[in-house]
Write a structure and sequence with these properties.
The complex is a heterodimer.
Chain A (H helix, E strand, L loop, with lengths): L1 H28 L25 E3 L7 E2 L6 H5 L5 E9 L5 E11 L8 H5 L6 E3 L13 E3 L6 E2 L5
Parallel strand pairs in A: 2-7
Antiparallel strand pairs in A: 1-5, 3-4, 4-6
Chain B lengths: L3 H15 L2 H38 L15 H11 L10 H19 L3 E3 L2 E2 L6 H8 L3 H11 L3 H32 L4 H6 L6 H4 L1 H18 L11 H4 L9 H26 L12 H8 L3 H22 L5 H29 L4
Antiparallel strand pairs in B: 1-2
Helix pairs in contact in B: 1-2, 2-3, 2-12, 2-14, 3-12, 4-6, 4-12, 6-7, 7-10, 7-15, 10-12, 10-15, 12-14
Classes of the chains: A alpha+beta, B mainly alpha.
Amino acid sequence: MFLKEYIKEVYSAVKSLLVGMRRTGYYFTHHKEIITQQYPDNRATLHLPERFKGEVVMPHDNNNEHRCTGCTACELACPNGTIKVVTKFDVTPEGKKKKAVDKLVYHLELCTMCNLCVEACPSDAIKMAQTFEHSVYDRNMLTKILNNPGSKIMEGVE
Amino acid sequence: MWSLSEIAHTIHEWLNTTFNSTLATLIEMVVAGIAVISLFALLGLVLVIMERKVSAWIQIRLGPNRVGPKGMLQSMADTLKLLVKEGLTPNGADQFLFNLAPFIAMIVAMLLMAPIAFAKDFQLWDLNIGVLYVSAVSSIMVISILMAGWSSNNKYSLMGAMRSGAQIVSYELSAGLSLLSIVVLTGSLQVSEIIQSQSNGWWIFKGHIPAIISFVIFMIAVTAETNRAPFDLAEAESELTAGFHTEYSGMKFALFFLAEYVNVFIVCAIGATVFLGGWMPFHIGSWEGFNHIMDFIPSSIWFFGKTFFLIFMIMWFRWTFPRLRIDQLLNLEWKYLLPISMVNILLMTAIAILGWHF
């Protein structure tokens, strides 16, 4: 019946609105538990979510060794030309030439933190760091070279 | 005893003994105008900080907490910022209408202040068609919005203004009908008589379920009339940047902003007057003792308490419900609110004729 449907509709609409108002009313009356972080005040104890992405870094171990093979997969994956891989050829003890990374140039000012480079990397050489205070006075300082000077590739990473 | 009506009376007496009656009337008009303007400024400051705090607490945030104690001076700082900003008029805009529109909005809000009874015997103008006056004047509000949208020469502003026109024209019907259902019970459109008729209980309790239904419909309709979420299609930040006031900046924007909050206050004051008894304390029938205890609380506190409760309800709606689409909005009015309020007014008339109300 039409009228029955109509009344049912009104009833369910009002009920669902009241459910929503009850939820927000609960939040309103329990305003001690806040979800935002008071950033400059709690800088020392700041807790960032696990998936927060601040910048791309390349981890190095104690022997100044990284895992980057210079395959340029990250450069190809980057949608806006943030990463530029400059490769060189290492000469192995056997006298063979081997492609390796010379400089991994990373333009932080162009990066949108999309994580595609990290996804694309076959050897887990780069990852996202949680740093976020990136303000500098000169934008040249935002162009970073990710591999440390004099670093070389880890043993066993192909 | 210090009460608003006695202060007003003392000023009136003093002016009439010091000056001749014409000059005294003129001075009284100026004083009333200044009082209304300062009430506007105060309401703007209080309601903005209230809105920001309510929204913050509903969204589990802290809200403004830097300026002044607990951030209570934040809206003062915002006002100062808006005052010193440049009021830009775009090149392609219609200069005259563009600059006129915010003032129309303010003037409408000011006109609506006239029949509101803020306390016992404290009212600017107790005209005999108070409720009709309010519902008639509040529809001029749409002219300022249309004017702002049209003269901005901007597609977003125009769309916002057109939506607002459709919205206000349709929602005025159910707001008017729900007010009418109480007028049927009181038999008078005069604000002071409507309040006096509630001296043995507020209409929302005396009028049974139809009064509650018309109160709910009134709250929905005035939320739509003041262009607030979930009916803020005229502004619709996510689609139309800021709707009709996209092109406004500085103090001209601030006037629109202020007019919105003052309108919210006014419609809540009307709702409080008609349904919750205005300044009338909470009385139950013929319980003399209880009624007498309630009379000890000053009438202005009753009025502002009820009004701010309704304002809080409207803010609660705003921060809970998602925005409606324009067709959903019109469906809600024409398919649900209007038929329900029509049946409701029929029921109310039957109750009034048969004398079933208390």
